[in-house]
Design a protein that fits this description.
The structure is a homodimer. Chain A is of the alpha/beta class. Chain A folds into two domains: about 70 residues, Arc Repressor Mutant, subunit A; about 110 residues, Rossmann fold (3-Layer(aba) Sandwich), CATH 3.40.50. Chain A contains eight helices and nine strands. In chain A, the strands form two sheets. The first copy, chain A, has a seven-stranded mixed beta sheet. In chain A, helix 7 links the parallel strand 7 and strand 8. At the A-B interface, helix 1, helix 2, helix 5, strand 8 and strand 9 of A face helix 1, helix 2, helix 5, strand 8 and strand 9 of B.
């Protein structure tokens, strides 16, 4: 098991959710926001929102609300997403293509620096306007790019090999969509995304009443 | 905010993870499993695994391990995934197509009963061997299917409308991939999947040291 995070993971997930809503408020030209409005936007209760902000010490003023820009920068700084970060995307199939097209990359200041695949039919082509490189070149190309984050949108049997290449290339954080537990050296963090697990959780929730 | 779950969500997520590994062990003909082996398979520590099983009362025997089949059925019964459940998939684009092709639907006994889209070019066609129906027919067709679970693999601007149709059709649980908070009536559960949020969490984790 990976070592603990200083801020509990559920709090980190909520903070990431807030940051997105704050970005949207900022784009819409809104300068202050109340915890009640944040509840409307995120689905996280106003009480939980105020509690989560205690990670920064107190800085909201009752009745005035929070400064959108200030709050957004503080959370972004905490999550270390204030500067642009290059991300490597491995897998140019349906899933990879859907992820590339997903809105919001820019809100979190992630940039897809390179897309890789091992399918000769895809290598050298484009997906959503991005060039597809040979997955055999991950180490070589990341020497230039210097990305620390990799996304695995590959079939389960390929995932471990890809993870190995990404780690060799200097990546220390992986988001894995393949339904397989990745073996990685200590110091490498993996976030596993499994929508079937979410469906199973949902099944419990809708039947518990 | 939705009402609380009787079993904490992180525990439900771990239980869903165990059930998948147990299915795989069962398929491989394995009859017993130790908490240490489960740690290898799932990445959840043996101690946490044993603790999670306390939701069922004690039934492992020290040194003997757990009966794979028995444990799998107990967890499946708890999560209410022991009987096959039909699921409605809305969105037949890249993401929907990737989700349909995702391995493991059967392990959780979910079955994609119908795929919907609003694109005239897709309606009447097939995606991964499944017929694509007009999204305008969700209510009509679910009167027959009786699904309680819907997956939203649609663009953000379409998500709220689709959610409304699914709820009208009798769905009480939604898994939403669109980066938008869905407004749903009380009693409807929503699980939000956001890989960009996971990337932001990852950014914190890899930089915290």
């Amino acid at each position: 098991m990976t070592r603990a995070s200083r801020i509990p993971l559920p709090a980190l997930e909520r903070l990431s959710t807030y940051v997105r809503s704050l970005m949207e408020l900022k784009s819409a030209g809104k300068q202050t926001v109340s915890s009640r409005e944040m509840e409307e936007l995120t689905g996280v209760t106003a009480a939980q929102f105020r509690k989560d902000l205690s990670y920064f010490g107190e800085f909201g003023r009752r009745g005035v609300g929070y400064n959108v820009c200030d709050l957004q920068s503080r959370i972004a700084a905490l999550l270390r997403i204030e500067a642009e970060q290059p991300v490597l995307m491995v897998g140019a199939g349906n899933l990879g293509s859907a992820l590339i097209a997903y809105p919001g990359w820019n809100a979190y200041r992630f940039r897809i620096a390179a897309v890789f695949d091992n399918d000769p039919q895809k290598i050298g082509g484009e997906v959503r306007g991005l060039h597809v490189y040979d997955a055999g070149r991950i180490v070589e190309l990341n020497a230039e790019i210097g990305s620390q984050i990799g996304l695995l949108a590959v079939p389960a049997p390929a995932a471990q090999g890809v993870a190995g290449a990404l780690v060799e290339a200097g990546v220390t954080g992986l988001v894995n969509f393949a339904p397989v537990k990745l073996d990685t050296p200590p110091g490498v963090r993996v976030r596993q995304i499994s929508f079937l697990r979410e469906l199973a959780v949902l099944s419990y929730l809708i039947h518990q009443d």
